[in-house]
Amino acid sequence: MRSFILAGLLCGAVALAQTASPSGNQTPSNQVSTPAKAAPAKTAPSSKPAKSEAVKTAPVKTKSEPVKTEPVKTKPESVKAESVTINMPEGMTRDQADAILNELRSIHQLLLNPPATRTAAAAPAAPATNEKVKMSVGTGWYSMGRDDAPVTMVEFTDYQCPFCRKFETDSFAKLKTEYIDTGKVRFISRDLPLDFHPNAPGAAVAARCAGEQHKFWEMRDAMMLDKETDLGADALVKYGQKTNLDMPAFSACLKDKKFTEAIKKDTADAGALGISGTPSFVIGKTDKTEIAGVRIVGAVPFAVFDTAIRDALSAK
């Protein structure tokens, strides 16, 4: 069975291992030559047996015959994206492999040509999980749960990030049942559209436009939980209709892009917290001006969130 390795819980800057050749076919580096057999040296008979003379031999000439070699043809075992190779396991479709490769191509290009706003030449290392941080409380955030819940959990998300979708499907429902609906946690969603996800900014605007019609969470779920990952302009219209929005107002809001600056503010605040990938979270005691807590990076298991919330609940 073919092997397949693609580990990670986070959308963000990824170091890509480069291979020596961009092509899967190898050609022979040199032709192999085999020397011809040398003819035995002829010696002239001596007329004087009592006196020995040195036998003169003519230099042996050899002729090299190049041996033709044929490139070894092997059955394709992998799919390549520039300098990244993914071995396809049994059961994976070509469309699934292509989707992964497109993601890796985008990341690779971002690393080769970083945006002007980034000053570091190399991709920064992912911040340490559960590092203590402090975050100022802003206005206009979309929240779920009681405002006076003892613990606040803030997510920085990207609607096009597969790991944000993983958090939504694997952990969020249980967090909502056990902590948000019971009044223990207030959950806040903030935006961090990544540079290599071209449809993420538009999706963030769409969610906020739906929020104007009090349908933020419905729109968020429609985009996150759909098996289709297309978040282009036509898809946003489809999600708006699915959420029963006032479509003329929704379309006007999308064109206006009135929330662009608010999304940029979320992105800047994430950077100040040392957050550069999604999903990332801050969990801490609820406060009117500042949330002091821990930073959690990636779509980690529910147990990690559970421990952080329990620690915040028991903190004095």
Residue fraction in strands: 15-25%
Q: Assign the CATH superfamily of the largest domain.
A: Glutaredoxin
Order of helices and strands: EEEEHEEEHEHHHHHEEH
Q: What is Rg? A: 32 Å
- Quick one: how many beta strands? 10
Helix content: 25-40%
Q: What overall geometry do the principal axes of the alpha carbons give? A: globular
Under the CATH scheme, which architecture of the largest domain would be assigned?
A: 3-Layer(aba) Sandwich
Enumerate the spans where pLDDT stays under 50 for 5 or more consecutive residues: 1-7, 13-58, 72-86, 116-128
Oligomeric state of the chains present here: single chain
Separation of termini? 54 Å
The largest pleated sheet is described as: 6 strands, mixed
What's the overall average pLDDT, rounded?
76
Number of helices: 8
Would you give the CATH topology of the largest domain?
Glutaredoxin
The structure class reads alpha+beta
The strand order across the widest sheet is: 5-10-9-7-8-6
CATH class of the largest domain: Alpha Beta
Describe the structure.
The protein starts with 31 loop residues before the first strand and ends with a helix. Mean pLDDT is 76; it is low at 1-7, 13-58, 72-86 and 116-128. It is globular. The longest helix is centred in the first third of the chain and has 19 residues, at 94-112. The protein folds into two domains: 1-18 and 74-124, no CATH class; 131-314, Glutaredoxin (3-Layer(aba) Sandwich). The protein has 316 residues and is an alpha+beta fold. The chain is built from eight helices and ten strands.
